[in-house]
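Supplementary Note 3. Input sequence used for the single-chain structure prediction.
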Amino acid sequence: MHIFLIYEIPYLSADKLVVSTSCSLLHTAVNLVNETKLDKEIKSWLAFATQKVVEVNALAKALARQKDEHNIPSNTFAYYDQVLHTTIMLGVVPPRYGWNGGEIGFDVYFSMARGNASCPAMEMTKWFDTNYHYIVPELGHDVKFSYASHKAVTEYKEAKALGIDTVPVLVGPVSYLLLSKPTKGVEKTFSLLSLLGKILPIYKEVMSELKAAGASWIQFDEPTLVMDLDSHKLKAFTEAYSELASCLFGVNVVIETYFADVPAEAYKVLTSLEAVAGYGFDLVRGTKTLDLIKGVFPTGKYLFARVVGGRNIWANDLAGSLITLHALEGIVGKGTILCIFLSNSMF
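The predicted structure, written as discrete structure tokens, is reproduced below.
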């Protein structure tokens, strides 16, 4: 399921509030309507993916009754996982797979993901605390990056040609590096973040092409912000998005985190990124993050409030969520209230 719904309601102020599920709805079943043999009372306790969309919509309507505007994300579909797609985009193919340059095709892609007759697959590891996995990028001192997959731009243009203005989604540059590992023969102490300056030019190319194609929103997923990162790693977020700032003018950028609380220092760094238009937080499991938001939130920024749980099959406590939203509305302000539900193929 790939859905991105935006409900935009203008008010007099300039601040913004956004409502969303806590994470992708790939973590729950699709549609409760198909469960025809369930007891009626038990069924009333449940909410699958389709019903959770309705719950988000109900919260939007409770906040303000206006016409809905729908948008769909692009670059969310992955034949294996989105980290691997980012590896392909950056052209980081281990030599053993025999890639000689150019646009990377399915033969190389699936050899990296699943192996082939002469070469095993790359390492697969767990995606945070979910039951999903991703292919771990292999990086080293001498790795060469090149713009080797135009999937993000191609999918945006395909949708645009059909009259659909999508929101391209990219794995953020800092999380990509932090989720990687030193390649064979490279010392384990190798600083993966030392490669940040080498991958940012490719991110700039992608963003420039998306902007030229007409994209008005771009989403970066930076899930590592929920980890306990030291000051050096947190500084990388400031460096990365400051460097990308020249490409962000005229485009709304949202950075999404999920699955847990964002530590106080990470929250401070994230909400101080001037080139970013909005920030997304899981407020179902992230109760401490909610306290941070109540303490301070930057004026004029969008808050993507993930208040509908996406990791279970239970119906949402709409009244409780609405209380949270009204409290946030008092903090963020009744600027332009956006209610967004987002599901992507990886998370």
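Residues 261 and 330 are 21 Å apart (CA to CA). The two ends are 11 Å apart (CA to CA).
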